[in-house]
Specification:
Elements lengths: L3 H23 L6 H14 L3 E10 L2 E3 L16 E10 L2 E10 L4 H19 L7 H14 L3 E2 L4 E6 L2 E9 L14 E4 L2 E3 L5 E3 L5 E4 L8 H14 L4 E2 H8 L3 H13 L3 E4 L2 E3 L5 E3 L2 E4 L5 E2 L3
Antiparallel strand pairs: 1-3, 2-14, 3-4, 5-9, 6-7, 6-8, 8-16, 9-15, 10-14, 11-12, 11-13, 16-17
Helix pairs in contact: 1-2, 3-4, 5-7, 6-7
This protein binds manganese (II) ion (MN) (2 copies).
The site of one manganese (II) ion has 5 residues, from strand 4.
Length: about 300
């Protein structure tokens, strides 16, 4: 029987892998983060997919959820540890993958990147029916600690669904007693984060990512217009502030005010950048995997 869900996940995964590999080649000293994010998102569309969320380009001690703003001038420098975290969907079926790129030379950066990749590979081998998430999480923690580093304890892997980036259950990066038993055909994103620091993140300023939550009345016509675009164009998926500059025809300054207001009244959900609490370097590796006797790494 054809399975539209699995076929779409596999197609989205192939598109994502190609866009990610292409994007990674563009992360070089002197290049702009904004150009890389735009190039990755264009590549996903060119290959027949849609971005499932804005391309995260997180530098050094920012673990996730950073991305370039409209007309952002940030460039990559020698020694930067850059996380490129990308989502693609086909018919709403989401895939999610991330890679760490060390720009030029950074020995510690290389080591934490390798630990994240090894933790991911070890975890994927355990994505077989009847294993529990607790076993997968324990493996992630052990691999990272054996390498001499710390996992980020308040970031997790997760299920993925149709028009849903973060579905339950979570896959923590530290040993837990999670009793969830993996089933053939389950789709999960696994994403170990490795740091030389304490291993926790907290929200910081400069939010660029939002998601529509619900329609609430507002007195401002710009707010009503932006909420309508958020709902109709991006549905339940996260979108970037910079995408709306073109969509809404308002100035970036006005847009920032409107978005803040919509978050305050509960119409939009925001995803602030996540900073490692001890300002230490963070590396991440992520793939989307279909559980099976032979786990399928759809974003390989
Ligand atoms: Mn991701
Ligand atoms: Mn993820």
């Amino acid at each position: 029987m054809p399975d539209e869900r699995i076929d779409s996940v596999k197609k989205a995964g192939r598109i994502l892998a190609e866009a990610r590999n292409y994007g990674a080649t563009l992360v070089r000293a002197g290049e702009r983060a904004l150009d890389v994010a735009n190039a990755v998102e264009s590549k996903i569309r060119e290959l027949g997919g849609e971005p499932a969320f804005p391309t995260n380009v997180s530098f050094n001690h920012i673990a996730a959820h950073d991305l370039p703003d409209h007309e952002d001038v940030r460039k990559f420098n020698e020694g930067d540890v850059v996380k490129l975290d990308i989502g693609a969907h086909v018919k709403g079926w989401v895939t999610d993958s991330a890679v760490t790129i060390v720009v030029g030379k950074n020995d510690v950066g290389e080591k934490i990147k390798q630990a994240a990749e090894l933790a991911l590979q070890n975890a994927i081998k355990l994505m077989i029916p009847e294993n529990t998430i607790g076993q997968v999480s324990a493996s992630i923690e052990k691999t990272i600690r054996d390498a001499g580093f710390n996992p980020v304890i308040n970031l997790t892997g997760h299920g993925v669904g149709q028009y849903e980036v973060h579905a339950s259950p979570a896959i923590p990066n530290i040993a837990t007693k999670s009793p969830y038993v993996l089933k053939e055909g389950d789709v999960f994103a696994i994403e170990p984060f490795v740091t030389t620091g304490m291993g926790m993140v907290k929200e910081t300023s400069g939010t660029q990512i939002y998601r529509w939550l619900n329609d609430r009345h507002t007195r401002f016509p710009e707010s009503t217009k932006i909420l309508k675009i958020a709902k109709e164009k991006y549905s339940k998926l996260p979108f970037a502030k910079r995408w709306l500059v073109k969509d809404a025809g308002v100035t970036p300054a006005k847009l920032a005010l409107v978005l803040r207001g919509l978050v305050e009244i509960g119409s939009l959900y925001e995803y602030p950048p996540l900073r490692e609490v001890s300002d230490a370097l963070v590396a991440q590796a992520e793939h989307t995997v279909i559980v099976g006797k032979e786990p399928v790494m759809v974003t390989a």
